[in-house]
């Protein structure tokens, strides 16, 4: 069992959905997703 299954994610329940939310511009706070995809570029720069 992955550590991600031990808590309820507010928007999605699996990695694919979380990555979809990243692509749609949601603020992502899941540390495993951030580790998987790396830091997102700041759009204000």
Give a verbal description of the structure.
Helices cover 38% and strands 0% of the residues. The protein is mainly alpha-helical and 45 residues long. The radius of gyration is 11 Å and the shape is elongated.
What would you call the structural class?
A: mainly alpha
Low-confidence stretches: 3-7
In helices, the fraction of residues equals 25-40%
- CA-based gyration radius: 11 Å
Q: Choose one word for the global shape.
A: elongated
Roughly what is the average pLDDT, rounded to an integer?
58
Q: Can you give keywords for this protein?
A:
2 helices; 45 residues
Topology:
Elements: H1 15-24, H2 31-37
Task: Quickly describe the structure.
The chain has 45 residues and is an all-alpha fold.
């Amino acid at each position: 069992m992955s550590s991600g299954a031990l808590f309820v994610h507010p928007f999605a329940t699996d990695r694919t959905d979380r990555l979809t939310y990243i692509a749609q511009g949601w603020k992502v706070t899941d540390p495993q997703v951030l580790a998987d995809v790396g830091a997102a570029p700041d759009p204000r720069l």
